[in-house]
Design brief:
- With about 80 residues, this protein is mostly helical.
- It has one domain.
- Helix 1 runs antiparallel to helix 2.
- The mean pLDDT is about 85.
Length: about 80
């Protein structure tokens, strides 16, 4: 028995928009710069060395935000080039 084909083409729905994804990328980049500054302060002053975990945690969380946003933007660009 053959599988029936759909009557119309269903386009894949991608959540979010370019503006939101770009804002997330810019925000994450600023947080990474802020965290790198924090790490440099922790290295300079020995009394702050015990607080080095906070900027490292911020960098990790920023990369976790950046990865899905980047893939979403690339997927949207790929879909737009295929449609044209």
């Amino acid at each position: 028995m053959k599988k029936k084909k759909p009557f119309f083409y269903k386009k894949e729905i991608i959540s979010g928009s370019y503006q939101i994804d770009c804002i997330v990328l810019i925000f994450a980049a600023f947080v990474i710069i802020f965290s790198l500054t924090g790490i440099s302060v922790c290295i300079q002053y020995e009394s702050y060395a015990q607080y080095n975990w906070a900027p490292i945690l911020l960098i990790i969380l920023s990369f976790i935000l950046m990865i899905p946003s980047t893939f979403r933007i690339l997927k949207r660009i790929k879909n737009e080039t295929n449609d044209n």
